Structures are given as structure tokens and as C-alpha cells.
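Worked example

This section walks through a single chain of length 221. The input is the sequence exactly as stored; nothing has been trimmed or padded.
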Amino acid sequence: MPFVWAYFRTQHHQLRRGELVKILDAIKAGHSIRDSDLRGLLKGHYTDYRNALASNQSLKDQAKEKPSQIADYEALLSEADRLHGQGDRLSRQGHSQSAKEIGAKASKAYERALERLEEILRADPSLQMWLDRPVVFDLAAGGFTLDPVDVPRCFTSESPHNLGSVANWGVRDKADIIAEAVKAAIDEIDELLAPKITRSEESQPPGALSPQERLARATGR
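Given that input, the structure is written out below as C-alpha cells.
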């Protein structure tokens, strides 16, 4: 009966693979996946999946612990953004002179923020990791434009001009972590289902039935 047992084991792997593919399709469609489904289908890969989730959460927690120096810079930047927004509103309302005066104040505020950022990064270059873009204070390169679009921001900022995200720290979306575990499980099944040439097969005479063919005959398929 070993061939019959092998047949049903193959059927089990194929059915499990089909369910895992359905999960991948559900992830692509944006559907949530129940943990109970993952536990049953991932089997040995479920522990790896849970460990990856825990590591990801640890990175998220670290990203919330913003250094005081970066918070200082953000406070100065926030004031500059406020003034810039005020100047824009005055300009749209037709108060061109007032808008010009507020705009000049906003430029000075951005300049102060950038000066503070330069001090921060010269004292501790590693804090660059908290910013959404590379920062090089090079007068020859022209520096930064004193407006909300061009100035660097903390990658946790909610500003629409923030070019970064928590992905800067390697934080991943949960769906990506699930997909990675599911693909690993599928790859493992594919390896199990891949036909393997044994020594006995290599020594078989031409025309002899393969194990798969003998299994099909034994099960009537």
C-alpha cells in the first residue's frame, strides 16, 4: 500500500497548496486573513511568521521614540509651516503686502529650522536616519529652498510633503509579512511535490513504469 499512501499524501499537499494560493489572492485583493487559517496552513512556517510580526512591532515601537533633537527641529519647522500657510491664505484673499511680509517671516523661520538641523546633524550624524531625505549642507550645491516642499522632515511626520515613512526603519506592512510566509510554505510544498529520480529509477530498463505510473495504476487513475 505504499503507493496508495503516497498518492493521498500528494493529494493533501496539493489541496494545502491550493488554499495557500487562495490566501495570496486574498492579500492582493486587500482582504484580511484570519490567524486561525494561517496557523493551520503554514504549519512549521507559522512560528517564523509570528517571529517576523514581533520583530516588525519592535521596529514600530522604536520609531515612536523620537529623539529630543529631532523634536526640537520639528517644532521650528511647524512654526515655519504655520507662517507659510498664513501667507498663502493672505495672498489668496488679495492682501498682497501682508502676504509678502508673512512670507518673509516664514522664510526666516525655515532658515532657523535648517540652521538648527545642521547643528543637530553635525553633533550626531546618526540622527539623519530620522529624516525623509538625504541632507547635505553644501552652499556650493545651493542648499534648500525655504518652503515646505524642499525642507527635510522627520519620516514620522504627517505632512503631505513627507517623502519617507516608517519603512525607512525596515517596518513592513503586515500583509507583506503574511505573503512572505505563505510563499515560503508554497515553495516547501513545491519541493515536496517535485519529481525525484532515485537510484532504482536510474537502473530501470527502458520502457519500465515510473513510480508515478505504478501509483496511478494502483489507484485506478
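What to look for: Residues 197-202 have pLDDT under 50 and may be disordered.
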